[in-house]
Design brief:
Blueprint lengths: L1 H14 L13 E9 L10 E6 L5 E6 L5 E7 L2 E8 L6 E7 L5 E9 L25 E5 L11 H5 L5 E4 L2 E4 L5 E5 L2 E2 L19 E7 L13 E7 L6 E13 L18 E14 L2 E25 L4 E23 L5 E23 L6 E25 L6 E22 L4 E25 L2 E21 L12 E19 L3 E18 L9 E17 L4 E12 L3 H4 L10 E4 L7 E14 L2 E13 L2 E6 L7 E7 L3 E15 L2 E14 L2 E5 L5 E5 L2 E16 L3 E10 L2 E3 L2 E3 L2 E12 L4 E8 L7 E6 L3 E7 L5 E9 L1
Length: 807
Amino acid sequence: MKNYQCILTLLCLFTFLTISNAYPQDKKISISGQVKDARNKLTLPYANIIIKKASDAKFSDGTISDEQGRFLMKDVNPGNYQLQISLVGYLPFQKDITIGTLSPFIDLGIVELIEAVQTLQTVNIEGSNNDGLSTKLDKKTFDLSKNTSQLGGSVLQAMQNLPGISIQDGKVQLRGNDKIAVLIDGKQNAITGFGSQTGLDNIPASAIEKIEIINNPSSKYDANGNAGIINIIYKRNKQEGFNGKIGLTSGLGAIWLRKQNLLGISPQYQATPKINPSLSLNYKKNKLNTFAQADYLYTQSLNKNEFSQRIYTDGTILNQQVKRNRTTTFTTIKSGVDYNPNERNSFLISGFFNREKIGDLGDIPYFNSDFSVRNRFWQFIEDEVKYTATGTASYQHKFAQPGHTLSAGFNYTWHRENEKYYFKNIMPTFTGEDAFKLLSDEHVADLNIDYVRPMKHGRIEGGLKYRNRFIPTDMQFFPGLNSPIDANAGGWADYSEQIPAVYGNYIYEDKNIELEAGLRLEYVKLDYQVNPNHNTYKSDGYEYFRPFPNLRFVYKINDKNRLSAFYSQRVDRPNEVDIRIFPKYDDPELLKVGNPTLRPQFTHLLDLGYKNNWKSGYFYLSGFHKIVNGTITRIATIVPGNNIIYNIFQNAGRSYNTGGEVLIQQQIAPWVSMNVSGIIYQNTLNAFSIQNQYPVPTIYNMPKESILSGNLKWNVQLKLVKKTDLQLSATYLAPDLIPQGRIGSRFSTDLGIKRQIQNGKGEFFLNGNDIFNTLKIRKDITGNGFRLISTDYNETQVFRIGYSYKF
């Protein structure tokens, strides 16, 4: 209870402090229309169009209509204006307009000039500057170049101190939930997973321009991911001529030994090197723009160093350590061509290639209760290579009306997972050698068509998408002497998924109201065919057809205050690895197994928000309530006469996530800004009963679980002399629910400094993550006849130094 009181006290305290890490970005709007004669409806070329600020009537921008009477003004700041149109022979025309940010293009429609006095209605389009958190209160955008304390790390590390995000077991969580759809440049990719999240810890942050966090996605996004969407946007440059950027980052981790090994195993990795060279090139001339980007990441890490104790109801007590030394190389090449033959049409062809190689050296000793006897010593070597190749072709047609577009795109991805494990099973009376090999090829084809048309008070959007996904997988086991491996659980399995979908969105905006209403219709057919000789599982699958609505309503009290309400329905479909029928033997006494009978979980989400802006910052407060049916979670059970724990995915019934989020930002002075963000939520999982099928049917009954949890983050940025910036970040994560147990509180501090040199073309930085080495993962899990208590002292402290140069 003291932890909860601590969270509440800190939140109340920091609410009165200030914040500024949502990195302001001024949003510019384009306004357009067409001028016609009111009597004969003929278009009027060469009319003079200007806008003046409503506050002081000062000229802001102007243009003239073209031969079709159309006009366009770009890069207009949001605000209140007076529109004036004049043409010789016609009466002057005036309108009060309010330009907002809900749509990047505003179409004022047809403006008729007449020779007689006539009162025209007022057009209202309102908004305010984009300051990181969008005016729709659904999205936050973060420029990674300003996240000084995380420069040079991975995308996962770069996100850990961003507001609203927490990291658990190598996955990103939004509001305590890891069911997140991760996009790269707005598209799903095999590197980060289709409908899941993987690989974020190996994508170099140096390749990324910005990250968008979308808590409340609209219907134009896939329905998958009930916690929201993270869109990772790669760097691109469209400056005229030849230009580029080169960089090099190096670092060390695991500098200190946090906990000594148990007796008899190989040393932990220490002073682990990190090397990340990067290069981006761009050439643009006239209608053609070509780009290329390459990144290489070499890293060693103490990936896992978990000490645990298993206590069984029959009195058995087992102590173990899982130590995993990891070496990873990650190579990425991205290239493409933009071609714009005229103002109306544009083409993009791009390719993406990635190779990831992982080498693990693992030691797992198992001791009795007083460490006097070593019952087993399990060693493994993992040799895994992953390849990803993606090809994209897209076309966009721009109609004469600015912002009126029709887009089409095709994306194909091939992803190979080639994994080999070699085991040594050292027992008191013998030594056995075992192995397995897994080969999986993923083929994904996506076709998208999207249509957008601006209107006087918003826009309409619509489109369709079709996905075909096929993953053949083959697992071969090679058991040795007295092997613990279940060789009859191997074989082949084919995953096939087809998803056609169609969506429509309507956006309306006036002086006081913003409204977005959308509907996505999605059909899913999934087939999972497995080896008929598998000793437990049979072929299975599912299909559904259902609507996924979303509704957003914003009431603008005035220029500084607004209220919002958001409702949506979403789904989380099991990924292929969640239903994969093969047991994983990196720990032979804590096995992870998929479940082909797993079904999607469906979510209802209600989100209420309030935002108050002032000159140098803002305050944002939201409350949310989420209901999940068919909650997907891992359930660990044992079978009679066996101490092996089997972790298997199941649908556990209904769960709830209810809480609130506060985000405050403030520019204290020209040289210092701060931010604080906090989330408090109640996680509840209703009582449920399931049956784990592997290796034999085992029924497990779970009582209702509930916990009050949250996180608190604080950031301060200082602009020092001579173009030098310093950032200090601190994060506290409260205890939280995990399947069948709890995870303990965690705390870390990051520090970074960077300086621009060589007339702004060069940049030098130095930073450290978890500089006080305080981040440890403690878990307490209870199952049917056992309790598992563990603490992971894996590598979290890393220091980096880097340099980049623009040319």
